[in-house]
């Protein structure tokens, strides 16, 4: 690992070209850094705002090598890229976060096992290999639970809520042989996320805990700060810093949790900037995207404290048509992702509304 800071005009490679890559590239530009996007889709949102762009498959080793040679350091914008892609690039160029963090986050069983091994609370979980193991796991969960593939999936895709009336054999058939995990239902009070940035020197900057509301398994809105006691806020931040250190992490890490009384149960981690953290762009002195690029470039981390309370709302599908009315509202910041087609449930942008802490 290098701790040599990149100079302005250096180039950061970003693997993945979605809206997160777009906002990372925009943040890099504000710091005087260039970005080079690597993405299989030529019309991706990040390509519209990047200095350079490579269109190639994630398993195209020739293209990956050329990409690595053209940049000074590499990061990625989402966790469903192949670990082999990161490992290939890392053979010739530093990649942050590391392949280790990516690998753990890609497998729900490994992820929860890692968190439990670190001493953090998680919902009960069970490795599902066949009908017998599923029936046994459900019995231990009181007859109800959430079945998920161990790998991939987002926004609730490919998940089944099971109870005594479920046709277990049919559900397993839909999994089509994929490794799976059953998670016990959690009677949570609220859902929150904790975002922590960690630099190459081990320094950390943690944002205040964010409270989230989901609709149809998709994040609807995020509120800063979350309704938590000061003690639980401190517990959350301490936990995030310990997880980042255990992963030898560099960049912004998101940890999604359930609040159950005075306890936090980790649901999952995301080794990247996160949808719930979008409001930090407008509500904090240094937002998550700039913070991530600072860490990757080995620059000092910025001030993560909030100057305003905020609520961020995702714009899904045709909700993007509200852009004109939204841009006319006071203390309102509209961020559109440049996607050509508005499909139901597709994240087309977000809007953040601020409220000063003294008002």
Write up this protein.
This protein has three domains: 85 residues, 3-Layer(aba) Sandwich (Rossmann fold); 61 residues, 2-Layer Sandwich (Dna Ligase, domain 1), CATH 3.30.1490.20; 167 residues, D-amino Acid Aminotransferase, Chain A, domain 1, CATH 3.30.470. Helices cover 28% and strands 29% of the residues. It has eleven helices and 17 strands. The strands form three sheets. Strands 9, 10, 11, 12, 13, 14, 15, 16 and 17 form a nine-stranded antiparallel beta sheet that branches. Helix 1 crosses helix 10 and helix 4 crosses helix 5. The longest helix is centred in the middle third of the chain and has 17 residues.
Question: What is this structure, in a nutshell?
Answer:
The chain has 359 residues and is an alpha+beta fold.
Name given to the CATH architecture of the largest domain? 2-Layer Sandwich
Which geometry do the CA atoms define?
globular
Which class of secondary structure composition applies to the elements?
alpha+beta
The sequence of SSEs as H and E is: EHEEHEHHHEHEEHEEEEEHEEHHEHEE
Please give the count of helices: 11
Radius of gyration: 20 Å
- The CATH class of the largest domain, by name, is Alpha Beta
| CATH topology (fold) name of the largest domain | D-amino Acid Aminotransferase, Chain A, domain 1
Measured by DSSP, the beta-strand proportion falls in 25-35%
Helix coverage percent = 25-40%
Which runs of at least 5 residues are low in confidence (pLDDT < 50)?
none
The total tally of domains equals 3
CATH superfamily of the largest domain: ATP-grasp fold, B domain
Care to count the β-strands? 17
């Amino acid at each position: 690992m290098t701790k040599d800071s990149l100079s302005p005009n250096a180039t950061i490679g970003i693997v993945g070209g979605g809206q997160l890559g777009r906002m990372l590239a925009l943040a890099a530009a504000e710091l005087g850094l260039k970005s080079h996007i690597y993405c299989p889709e030529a019309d991706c949102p990040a390509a519209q705002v990047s200095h350079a762009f490579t269109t190639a498959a994630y398993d195209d080793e020739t293209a990956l090598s050329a990409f690595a040679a053209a940049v000074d350091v590499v990061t990625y914008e989402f966790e469903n890229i192949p670990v082999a892609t990161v490992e290939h690039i890392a053979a010739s160029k530093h990649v942050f976060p590391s392949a280790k963090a990516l690998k753990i986050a890609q497998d729900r069983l490994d992820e929860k096992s890692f968190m439990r091994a670190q001493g953090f609370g998680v919902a009960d979980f069970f490795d599902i290999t066949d009908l017998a193991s599923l029936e046994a796991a459900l019995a231990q969960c009181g007859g109800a639970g959430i079945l998920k593939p161990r790998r991939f999936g987002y926004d609730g895709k490919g998940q089944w809520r099971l109870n005594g009336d479920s046709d277990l054999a049919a559900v397993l058939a839909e999994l089509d042989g994929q490794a799976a995990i059953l998670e016990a239902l959690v009677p949570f009070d609220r859902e929150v996320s904790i975002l922590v940035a960690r630099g190459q020197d081990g320094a950390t900057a943690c944002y205040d805990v964010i409270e989230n509301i989901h609709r149809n398994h998709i994040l609807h809105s995020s509120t800063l700060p979350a309704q938590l006691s000061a003690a639980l806020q401190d517990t959350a931040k301490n936990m995030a810093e310990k997880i980042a250190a255990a992963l030898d992490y560099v960049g912004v890490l998101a940890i999604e949790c359930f609040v159950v009384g005075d306890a936090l149960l980790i649901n999952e981690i995301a080794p990247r900037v996160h949808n719930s953290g979008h409001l930090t762009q407008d509500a904090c002195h240094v937002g998550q995207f700039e913070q991530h690029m600072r860490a990757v470039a080995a620059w000092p981390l910025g001030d993560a404290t909030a100057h305003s309370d905020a609520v961020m709302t995702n714009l899904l599908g045709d909700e993007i048509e509200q852009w004109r009315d939204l841009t006319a509202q006071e203390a309102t910041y509209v961020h559109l992702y440049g996607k050509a087609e508005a499909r139901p449930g597709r994240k087309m942008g977000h809007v953040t509304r601020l409220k000063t802490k003294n008002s």
